[in-house]
């Protein structure tokens, strides 16, 4: 594949490009995504947008040029290579798909590759990840515990490794058997031991089990497949196909569920895929009539996102916050997300206190959408400790992205629209007035907030209680 491709480097001041040397290393594409972008916004997204706006197209740098008809001519070979399980074929297919799926933002020299162009590709990629997931954990950790029968004189207890009681010669280890044991019981135990030895040969250390090197290679293939799926999720042509593919969603959610044991890059790819598909994602797909490959429910899916939100890893909790903010836009997802609202609000308010501007942007974006759901959401958010104070700090600092400041001010305006919340907000009346007089950009919003707090006839008693603590 690499031999068929030519590295072209664009030089300033030249009409044509010169072919790169054979020994020139292929530049690794930048991983990660600007969390908080799109509906939420982020500092990194604004910085990237300003750079892109100022940079001419000639500064895009080296790129790998792939013929536009390559996918059409080789789509069957790509899918068959993924399904073959052969190392050489699998490596070729994954490298090819990495080139076909990756596309820089505003890159005009390369066409996107829609999944519809290659039938069966998504299922084949998911099979690569499933093959790794099947062997990801040692079997000793994945075995289900058997119920021990009290009073039974058995060599294997059912706890821990079932075969530790067997010696290397294949005979039972020396154990003391009670005087009440009969000859028939002993013969039955010996027969059971022989059956277990036969099962052990095929089940535990069979002829086709992978060694550590083989496991590492399987894991690398799974990570590469997840990276390809992530790249495809950035393309608008693939969003509907992937968001309605139950096996795809079950696989990425399962990777997130096992984040403590799974490869970090695989978990990150799965999470970024969900963030891209979130506007079209309906959690009811897990209880639909579509064929299911992995047992995932709506509740377990939300719990997996909550684990990511509570994570100390910046990329994970920022992506989880943005994911929740996008999921709640769909009214069909509200019944599954709102039971977790108290935990969501508490963690999002905690993210507002972090110095990372990406974390603040993701939290504000999620709170902005949650505050628009219903009155109960606004009441719970206003009653959350430090919520109003930290939203004010985002506006007063201010946050480097003006859109985030605007959304923080809009959240406060949504909170003050509920009469029950005005008691919580009256304590910040002086802060609101200070921003109104000193900040011209959001003065209209804070003018409306002060009007709601003080100008309404039914606010006179509330104003007294808020100022004098009566």
Automatic annotation (TrEMBL):
* GO process terms (BP): chromatin remodeling; positive regulation of DNA-templated transcription; regulation of transcription by RNA polymerase II
Database matches in InterPro entries = ARM-like (IPR011989), ARM-type_fold (IPR016024), BAF250/Osa (IPR021906)
Which molecular function term from Gene Ontology is one that the record holds? nucleosome binding
Instruction: Quote the Gene3D superfamilies the UniProt record gives.
Output: Leucine-rich Repeat Variant
Q: Which GO terms describe its cellular component?
A: brahma complex; nucleoplasm; SWI/SNF complex
List where this protein forms a coiled coil. Answer: none
Region of interest called Disordered, as start-end residue ranges on this chain: 10-41
Comp. bias regions, Gly residues: 14-23
Q: Which PANTHER family match?
A: BRG-1 ASSOCIATED FACTOR 250 BAF250, TRITHORAX GROUP PROTEIN OSA
- For this entry, the protein name equals Armadillo repeat-containing protein LFR
Organism for this UniProt entry: Nepenthes gracilis (Slender pitcher plant)
Q: What is the lineage of its organism?
A: Eukaryota, Viridiplantae, Streptophyta, Embryophyta, Tracheophyta
């Amino acid at each position: 594949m690499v031999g068929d491709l030519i590295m072209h480097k664009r030089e300033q001041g030249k009409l044509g490009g010169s072919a790169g040397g054979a020994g020139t290393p292929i530049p690794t594409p930048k991983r990660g995504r600007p969390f908080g972008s799109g509906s939420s916004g982020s500092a990194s997204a604004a910085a990237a947008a300003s750079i892109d706006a100022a940079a001419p197209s000639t500064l895009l740098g080296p790129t790998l040029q792939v013929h536009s008809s390559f996918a059409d001519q080789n789509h069957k070979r790509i899918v068959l290579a993924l399904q073959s399980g052969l190392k050489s074929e699998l490596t070729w297919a994954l490298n090819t798909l990495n080139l076909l799926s990756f596309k820089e933002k505003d890159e005009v020299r390369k066409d996107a590759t829609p999944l519809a162009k290659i039938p069966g590709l998504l299922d084949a990629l998911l099979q690569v990840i499933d093959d790794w997931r099947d062997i990801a954990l040692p079997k000793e950790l994945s075995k289900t515990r058997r119920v021990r029968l009290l009073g039974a004189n058995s060599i294997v207890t059912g706890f821990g490794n079932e075969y530790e009681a067997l010696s290397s010669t294949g005979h039972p280890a020396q154990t003391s058997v009670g005087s009440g044991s009969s000859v028939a019981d002993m013969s039955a135990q010996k027969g059971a031991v022989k059956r277990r030895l036969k099962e052990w040969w095929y089940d535990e250390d069979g002829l086709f089990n992978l060694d550590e090197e083989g496991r590492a290679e399987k894991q690398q293939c799974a990570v590469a497949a997840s990276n390809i799926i992530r790249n495809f999720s950035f393309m608008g042509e693939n969003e509907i196909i992937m968001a309605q593919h139950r096996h795809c969603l079950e696989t990425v959610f399962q990777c997130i569920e096992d984040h403590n044991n799974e490869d970090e890059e695989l978990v990150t790819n799965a999470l970024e895929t969900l963030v891209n598909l979130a506007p079209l994602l309906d959690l009811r797909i897990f209880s639909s009539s579509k064929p299911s490959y992995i047992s995932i429910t709506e509740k377990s899916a939300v719990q997996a996102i909550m684990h990511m939100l509570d994570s100390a890893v910046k990329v994970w909790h920022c992506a989880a916050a943005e994911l929740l903010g996008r999921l709640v836009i769909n009214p069909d997802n509200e019944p599954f997300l709102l039971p977790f609202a108290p935990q969501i609000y508490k963690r999002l308010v905690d993210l507002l206190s972090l110095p990372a501007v990406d974390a603040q942007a993701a939290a504000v974006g999620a709170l902005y959408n949650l505050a628009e759901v219903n009155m109960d959401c606004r009441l719970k958010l206003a009653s959350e400790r430090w919520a109003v104070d930290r939203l004010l700090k985002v506006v007063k600092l201010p946050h480097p992205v003006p859109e985030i400041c605007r959304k923080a001010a809009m959240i406060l305006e949504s909170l003050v629209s509920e009469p029950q919340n005005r008691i919580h907000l009256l304590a910040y009346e002086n802060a609101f007035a200070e921003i109104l007089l000193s900040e011209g950009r959001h003065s209209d919003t804070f003018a409306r907030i002060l009007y709601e707090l003080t100008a309404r006839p039914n606010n006179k008693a509330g104003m007294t209680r808020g100022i004098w603590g009566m």
